[in-house]
Batch of 2 targets.
Target 1
Amino acid sequence: MTKGDYFFHLGMAKTGSTLLQRILFPKIKGLQFHKKKHFDSYLNIIQSRSTENHLFSSEMDKHLIKYLRQIIQSVPSAKVIIVLREPSKWIVSKYKYSIRKHDSLDFRMFFDLYNNKGQWNKEQLLFSHLIKKIKSICNEEPLFLSFDELHNSPHLFLKKIEIYTNSHFSGNAFTATFPMVNTAFSYKQLSLLKAFNKFYPYKEVKTKSRIINKVHYKYREFLLHAIALIAQALPYKIQNPLIDVDYLIEIKSHFKMDWDQCLTLIEESNPIPVSAT
């Protein structure tokens, strides 16, 4: 009995994962793609259908290495796909998302380049270290991809996945225009949401009921989206920029050498011969 191939796309978050999961991966042929909600059942699925080829997908950030170790321990032959994004752009995207999810911190407190006391520390943005760590854990060579390539050269991005997984995407995956699945709020909207979150902090309800917890959380999300919609229509100007451009330039400069090394490592994992690109 032939054993199947098992692929795990592990994000990271804010690197086009939703686009891949909702629009592109469902169009892949030669692999059984499992939606994000089934990710935690990967071991049961593989054990019950071990001769099939499977693709599982989820987003992971701070806990990526922890989950990767668990996956490799359970499925030693697992092949891993990781998408990475330039650090300064990635941390800005994470910050904007945090405001959409109830945060009210200033950007300099969210990511503190100087004192390293923010919600993310500097070491977590050294993606070349992350790549090397992932390679040391995996038994099979991982595939590393760049978020910029997904937007700038989507056909090449998809071709790399096809070759790595020995599968193919249906034709319309290559001809379709890739929309933004979760459209980002404008800085104007985010500035008002940040002020609202500070004025009216989100508090979890103290109950063991999953239904009540979910309703409470969804109500807050609805409230934030309503405020964002109103903010876009209001004729006001932002007094203080949400993100200091000079500070962002410093972040990009700080991580430039590491990101250049990342791009080299990403290219080394390229399954397409240089002559074919």
Target 2
Amino acid sequence: MIEASNDDPKRRGRLRLFARLRSNFLAGLIIVAPIGLTLWLIWTVVGWIDSWVWPFVPDAYHPEALINRILNRGPADQITVNVRGIGVFIFLIFTVLVGWIGKGLIGRSFLGIGERLVDRMPVVRSVYNAAKQLAETVFSQRDTSFDKACMVEYPRKGIWAIAFISTNAKGEIEKKLTNGEPVVTVFLPTTPNPTSGFLLFLPESEVKVLDMTVEDAAKLVISAGLVYPAKKNGTEQIEDAS
């Protein structure tokens, strides 16, 4: 019994030390994982763009060839260089030039001719139209984002779900549904994938507009309710579990 009583404080000390190490590890993982994932993603995307761009650049203008030519290196003692990011720079310049030409009269004419040719190809037409619609949705500078975040009763009365207000109903839908009250067009996303969901048309009185931004509401949906928006003073809203 005496040995057990002597060992208990040591055991408790080891457990507390292990708990502190585990807590510190998890806290560090929360900090390191997003940074590492972001850097890895940037490194991978930059390498992918470089591998896609460099085949279109003549070998004489590759970084290795230029450096070896400047240093007068022969075939036997050439320097091997892996320079990432130059392909991205070339891609950016190329894309800007294409956009500048495409916005002009001549560019729009050639683009229209090309799209008319694509419309005559059954499979290619579907792929091109889908890719074009996706690119216009993601990269368009027009104001097509959601207006506000809101809450609606779904899938039944008494159960509330986060949704996003896009605009008021218009045209035939407004004429069919309106009864003296504006009808709101609402997108109800699914969790944790907010790209899928339901398009709802609700009376304005059944929609509760939230003060949080659309971005904060999207984070709340994606995290399945784990990430709540921060307070105005910058501290997180953390409820006491006790």
